[in-house]
Amino acid sequence: MKLRSSFVCQQCGYDTPQWYGKCPNCGEWNSLVETVKEDARLGTHVSAHDRTNSVKPQRLVDIRHIEKNRCKSGYGEFDRVMGGGVVPGSVTLLAGDPGIGKSTLVLHILASIGGLYVSGEESAEQVKLRAKRLGINGENIEMLAETNAEAIVGVIREKQEKINLVIVDSIQTVSSSDLDGMPGAVGQIRHSTELLIAAAKSQGTPIFIIGHVTKEGMIAGPKVLEHMVDTVLYLEGERFANARILRTLKNRFGAVEEVGIFEMAENGLKEVTNPSALFLQDRVKNVPGSVVTVIVEGSRPLLVEIQALVVPSQLAMPRRVGNGIDYGRLQLLVAILQKRLSIPLGTFDVFVNVSGGLTIEEPAADLAVAMAILSSFKNKPLDPATAVFGEVGLLGEVRRVAGEERRIKEAKRLGFTTVVSPQATRNLQQAGKLL
Ligand code: TYD
Ligand code: MG
To answer: Which residues crowd ion ligand 2, with CB under 5 Å?
Structure first.
């Protein structure tokens, strides 16, 4: 058998016969690792030739409608994110930081759908322990503590259609005996995933692959994995806060903007059907520096509290610290407040925090951030029944944002009687009068 040695980038999967200090494709330093592999191209070529006689096209109308066959977990938040349930034969990558709750989430889903749990990360006893904690007795779950990709695929193929769902926890522990690299190396991850995808497609068994995320926020090593699978889910949240958000980065079978919201509790992940209440539960009313805003996550409006603290600075370069909001955006808002409202923030430190460990990306929170800073600076609380949203422009003008009606409705539903929105407020000066 012919062996081929190549250097594979652990970040992007770029494959080159020559070593470089910096990946020519993604620019990452020291990411190329030597991988020895058998030249498999010859083998696939022969089998492709064999198959030419058996392939034939099918009419679109004759193809079974997948919508009907979606498998629901009964977990409303999860099913919605998946676009209405798990599609047969689909392969989903569930990514997230270690310890965020990926194994917990999949165990809940497996307990309701039933199937095979392949664990390379934890022993069968550890999984049993977690199941007990979640109140799952596991009659419909089979355990397989295995890390060899061929062996896993062998078990899946043996079970044929008798299996509803397969979980592989995690792909970083799986390796193929075809390759020499260590488990977790990009070549191994890619090849093992290819084997799993082939098994899923050929017999219609859905597979969930769990993947850890590196510090850099990439789906560990192989970004390539994202392109291979049908759906990419991302579970995020602050480790020490309870809220968990399940996002879709890619979905061949549904909308990508959907999010599911969960709460990590003593006995597992609970669905949160009223997320605004969750994010506002710890709010202290009538304190300067606190402003409630309405953001939109996926198709749902969400109320969250923005907190700001403005204190005289001891430093030549006053500090601007934003937790859950973009640093550049914070600097911009501070500058706008200085220029348009003549607030002398140049000698003050400004700290801003988003409650519940959420990260806000949309500019719709601008007005609330600016008003929270203003409220702390003036030491005047905003009326607690007021919610605020709108983008702030460089001239201090309040700009329209998407989904205004939905945001206003949600705020009213949760008992906010006044909503400061772009519809009623022209600029920052006008909003500032409320303080
Ligand atoms: P886990 O699902 O193991 O995370 P991952 O697979 O993403 O690494 O979850 C780990 C954390 O969740 C751990 O710190 C304990 C916490 N946890 C709970 O708070 N409640 C629970 O019921 C369970 C099972 C875990
Ligand atoms: Mg885990």
So the answer is: 103
Burial group, residue 58, by CB count within 10 angstroms (0-12, 13-18, 19+): exposed
Residue 139, pLDDT above cutoff 50: yes
Of 204, 199, 234, nearest in space to 218 by CA: 234
| Residue 283 DSSP code | P
- Could you read off the pLDDT of 270-292 as tens digits, one per residue? 998 888 888 888 888 899 999 99
Residues 190 and 289 grouped into a single domain: no
**Judging by DSSP bridges, how do beta strands 231-236 and 91-96 pair with one another?**
parallel
Same domain, 214 and 343: no
Q: How far apart are CA 247 and CA 265, in angstroms?
A: 20
Least confident residue range of 101-110, 233-242, 397-406: 233-242
Q: For a pocket test of ligand 1, which of 123, 129, 133, 264 has the largest count of ligand atoms closer than 8 A to its C-beta?
A: 264
Asked if 173 and 189 sit in the same domain, the reply is yes
Answer yes or no: do 262 and 290 share one domain: no
120: CA distance to ligand 2 center in Å?
10
Nearest ligand 1 atom, CA 100? 7
Residue of the nearest CA to atom 22 in ligand 1?
Answer: 268
Q: Tokens at residue 223, please?
A: 């970004």
According to the model, what pLDDT value does residue 122 have? Answer: 92
Q: Which residue did the predictor score with more confidence, 307 or 37?
A: 307
What pLDDT does 229 receive? 94
Of 273, 303, 332, which residue constitutes the final position of a domain?
273
Residue-number span of the structural domain to which 10 is assigned: 3-48
37 and 113 in a single domain? The answer is no
Q: Total structural domains in the chain?
A: 3
Mean pLDDT of the chain: 87
Interatomic CA distance for residues 394 and 331, integer angstroms? 12
Q: How many of the other CB atoms lie within 10 Å of CB of 317?
A: 7
